[in-house]
Structures are given as C-alpha cells and as structure tokens.
Specification:
The chain is mostly beta strands and 122 residues long. Helices cover 0% and strands 48% of the residues.
Length: 122
C-alpha cells in the first residue's frame, strides 16, 4: 500500500490550495479515505473523510465550509480543496486509509502516506 500526498506550499491567508493523494497497491475504490493534519508541536487532527463511493463526506469543525474532499476512483486519487486558508491551517497534511469494517468517519487508520506541508503566512 502506498499513499503519496502532494500539492502543498506557501500561500497567503485567504488563498486556495488543492491537495492530491495518489493511492496504489490496493483497490482504492473499496476503501473509505481520510485527510489528517499535524501542526508543529501538536497532535494529529482529523480534517475530513469520504466514503468509498464518494457520496458521503464529513469535515472537522475547524475546516467545515472552507475545505472540500473528493475522490476520483478511476484515477485512484483523493483530493482536498482548501479555500480561505488561515495561518492556523499551517500543518503537514497527509491522507490515510480507513480500515475495513469502520464507518467512514472513524478515526482509525491502517495506512497513512507521507505528508505535504502547507504553510499559510503573509
């Protein structure tokens, strides 16, 4: 199983950024997926999740209304569209696979990928 996130960078407050996570080594379309982030010196924070079919989505309180999760099962890719970015969104973002048998919003993880750093600063 491999999960590789990319698309991070340095942006100004209020900007938009799109993250992608390419999955391989498993049948992507049959697994729920999630995004997490970890800011320097802080613990892991659940950001968003999407079910295997892509028709159910949920978000953490701090990002709801600003972030949108989506997936393209034909391309084995998970996305996170982030708008109106704030300095407090600065963190390493990574995607993770939800283990079978768990609801899509469960914070259980069996595989996580390498993250991509998002820095929001003026």
């Amino acid at each position: 199983v491999q999960l590789q996130a990319y698309g991070g960078g340095l942006v100004q407050p209020g900007a938009f950024l799109k993250l992608s996570c390419e999955a391989s080594g498993f049948t992507f379309s049959t697994y729920h997926m999630a995004w997490y982030r970890q800011a320097p010196g802080q613990g892991r924070e659940w950001v968003s999740a999407i079910n295997s079919g892509g028709n159910m989505k949920d978000y953490g309180v701090s990002v709801k209304g600003r972030f949108t999760v989506s997936r393209d099962n034909a391309k084995n890719t998970l996305y996170l569209h982030m708008s109106n970015l704030k300095p407090e969104d600065t963190a390493e973002y990574y995607c993770a696979r939800v283990p079978r048998g768990h609801y899509y919003t469960a914070t259980a993880v069996d595989y996580r990928g390498q993250g991509t750093l998002v820095t929001v600063s003026s």
